[in-house]
């Protein structure tokens, strides 16, 4: 029993485990370079050679730019209001003494427009501006943005396409708040590491039978030995093709997620079917079937999912036949009595007979449930 359930729990946990590990690995790989620069310090943009420009976090001491060539905005069709969100300025790599440089892009929010426009004027007048200190991440221009960038240099035959390719880089620095970027990238990288660790833990847990820990506790709490329950489980009747819902004489077994749980039949006070119809925009999208159990000693009701109504009815019919102390079926009167006068409810059946499973008599007759 336990070896079978261990294999089943490991198999059922694999999908979630694999998804976690793939997502975690993707986050770790994607943000590894960001994590590196956060730990070791951002690269100083002016010290990078053109062939060193790549996807990385940088600090920028900007003293020159060659104007804005692109405006990004949001447009509200109802109010017809256009709001500028970002501006694209042309900058150069290296510092003022560097002879090997390329033109590329700096993307900033509009609050920098006044400062950078004044810097543009100084640049064309060969006046060195006071540094504007920024931080950001180097990214590659989208195809559309690259065409705008290219148009700026090649329109009116200022440059040939060959000259453009030689003197520019298809990258931009996206401005960002350093504290905010660090927080975001650390959370993303740390989340990836955590997902990987959880995935590894789930594999170890499944292989070691850790998903059966609660089942073993259920058995112990019910006062049974594991060997006794192994026999009960083997003889229990299954109500679905995957053996996820089984009713034995001693305990009822059900699967929730990757775990198998059980509760003692001799402590069941009340059981009934619950059917929920799901709708989206008034259209029926599905139906779920459950059996609700109220078990003595359990603070909350136990909800056991079943594949269909036929399975639910078979389980309830069997319980009605062999567990004469259990109230089967639902009514508002029973609910009111259960909540307001538990002693009276228990006198209906639970306290009126010995809690020992019975079998139908030789004529196939079963006890009648007064509820």
Describe the structure.
The protein starts with a helix and ends in a 23-residue tail after the last helix. A hairpin with a 3-residue loop joins strand 9 and strand 10 (251-256). The longest helix has 39 residues, at 2-40. It has 10 helices and 15 strands. By secondary structure, it is of the alpha+beta class. It is 40% helix and 27% strand. The strands form 3 sheets. Strands 1-2-6-7-5-4-3 form a 7-stranded mixed beta sheet. A 4-stranded antiparallel beta sheet has the order 8-9-10-11. The protein has a 4-stranded mixed beta sheet with strand order 14-13-12-15, with helices on one face. It is elongated, with a radius of gyration of 35 Å.
Overall SS class: alpha+beta
Strand order of the largest sheet: 1-2-6-7-5-4-3
Q: Portion of residues in helices?
A: 40-55%
Number of helices: 10
Shape: elongated
- Estimate the strand proportion: 25-35%
Average residue pLDDT: 89
**Oligomeric organization of the protein chains:** single chain
- Per DSSP E runs of 2 or more residues, the count of β-strands stands at 15
Task: List the keywords.
371 residues; seven-stranded mixed beta sheet; four-stranded antiparallel beta sheet; 10 helices
Short account of what is shown:
The chain is of the alpha+beta class.
């Amino acid at each position: 029993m336990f070896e079978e359930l261990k294999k089943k729990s490991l198999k059922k946990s694999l999908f979630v485990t694999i998804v976690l590990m793939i997502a975690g690995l993707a986050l770790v790989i994607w943000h590894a370079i960001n994590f590196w620069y956060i730990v070791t310090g951002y690269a100083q943009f002016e010290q990078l050679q053109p062939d060193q420009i790549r996807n990385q976090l940088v600090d920028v001491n900007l003293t020159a730019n060659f104007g804005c060539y692109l405006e990004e905005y949001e447009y509200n069709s109802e109010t017809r209001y256009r709001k500028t969100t970002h501006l694209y300025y042309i900058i150069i790599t290296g510092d003022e003494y560097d002879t090997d440089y390329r033109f590329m892009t700096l993307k900033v929010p509009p609050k920098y427009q006044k400062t950078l426009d004044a810097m543009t004027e100084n640049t064309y007048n060969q006046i060195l501006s006071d540094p504007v200190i920024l931080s950001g991440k180097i990214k590659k221009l989208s195809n559309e943005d690259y065409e705008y960038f290219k148009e700026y240099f090649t329109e009116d035959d200022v440059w040939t396409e060959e000259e453009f390719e030689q003197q520019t880089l298809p990258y931009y620095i996206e401005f960002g708040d350093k504290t905010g970027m660090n927080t975001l990238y650390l959370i993303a990288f740390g989340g990836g590491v955590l997902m990987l660790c959880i995935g590894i833990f789930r594999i170890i847990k499944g292989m070691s039978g850790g998903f059966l820990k609660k089942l073993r506790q259920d058995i112990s709490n019910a006062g049974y030995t594991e060997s006794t329950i192994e026999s009960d489980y083997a003889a229990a009747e299954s109500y679905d093709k995957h053996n996820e819902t089984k009713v034995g004489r001693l305990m009822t077994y059900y699967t929730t997620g990757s775990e198998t749980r059980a509760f003692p039949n001799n402590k069941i006070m009340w059981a009934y079917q619950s059917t929920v119809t799901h709708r989206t925009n008034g259209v029926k999208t599905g139906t779920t079937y459950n059996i609700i159990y109220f078990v003595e000693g359990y603070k909350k009701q136990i909800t056991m999912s079943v594949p269909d109504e036929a399975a639910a009815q078979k389980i309830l019919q069997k319980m009605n036949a062999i567990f004469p102390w259990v109230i089967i079926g639902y009514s508002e009167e029973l609910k009111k009595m259960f909540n307001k006068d538990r002693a009276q409810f228990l006198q209906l059946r639970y306290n009126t007979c010995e809690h020992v499973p019975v079998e139908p008599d030789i004529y196939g007759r079963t006890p009648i449930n007064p509820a």
